Amino acid sequence: MSMIEIKNLTRRFGSITAVDNMSFTVDRGEVLGFLGPNGAGKSTTMKMITGFLAPSSGSITVDGFDVTRDPMAVKRQIGYLPEGAPLWPDMTAAGFLEFIAGIRGLSGAEATTRIADVVDKTQIASVLTQPLDTPVERLQAAGRIGAGTAA
Ligand SMILES: Nc1ncnc2c1ncn2[C@@H]1O[C@H](COP(=O)(O)OP(=O)(O)OP(=O)(O)O)[C@@H](O)[C@H]1O
Ligand SMILES: [Mg+2]
Asked: Which domain holds residue 36?
């Protein structure tokens, strides 16, 4: 079973067919770049995979869960970092990670271990205590993207 399975996916907006009978799979551990010209249907596809937009037809499963039948199970499997990284500016990077750990159902030692692991992987230890909107451009970019990626 692939991690993401898209079969014959179509989405129409009135007379516009934004996604036309698309099929592909993404395996566990595979890194996929999803490229196409403006208006190709990338955002529409991502919105359907993440369960924010219903397909006109076709099917999507993530880790075996059907996006239409079990949208909450699919959302639990997904981390999504959009270009703008929408974060609360007053929160510190550490506070944000604790918050995300909480809403992902982690607590206590498990949360501490997991946070330490992602801080290490994303190399954001030096900005952990800074607010996410720290007015130093490089730190802000590094901290925001790092914190978003870690979350
Ligand atoms: N809510 C909507 N209502 C009507 N048409 C839409 C809607 N969303 C997208 N479209 C149309 O669907 C097509 C695909 O748009 P989409 O935003 O998915 O493309 P994209 O590949 O993400 O483009 P970009 O590179 O510009 O972000 C376009 O023709 C767009 O105008
Ligand atoms: Mg787009």
From this structure: 4-77
Q: How far apart are CA 71 and CA 8, in angstroms?
A: 19
Render pLDDT for 48-88 as a digit per residue (tens, 0 to 9).
999 999 999 999 999 999 999 999 999 888 887 776 667 78
- Give yes or no: residues 71 and 108 share one domain: no
Domains held by the chain: number: 2
Contacts of 55 (CB under 8 A, 6+ apart): 9, 10, 11, 19, 48, 68
Rounding to the nearest 10 degrees, give the CA dihedral for residues 121, 126, 128, 129: 170
Residue 33 CB less than 6 A away from ligand 1: no
Q: Indicate whether residue 42 lines ligand 1 (CB < 6 A).
A: yes
- Asked if pLDDT for residue 131 goes beyond 90, the answer is no
Q: Which of 99, 103, 79, 87 is nearest to 142 (CA)?
A: 87
- pTM (two decimals): 0.81
Relative to the alpha carbon of 9, which ligand is closest? 1
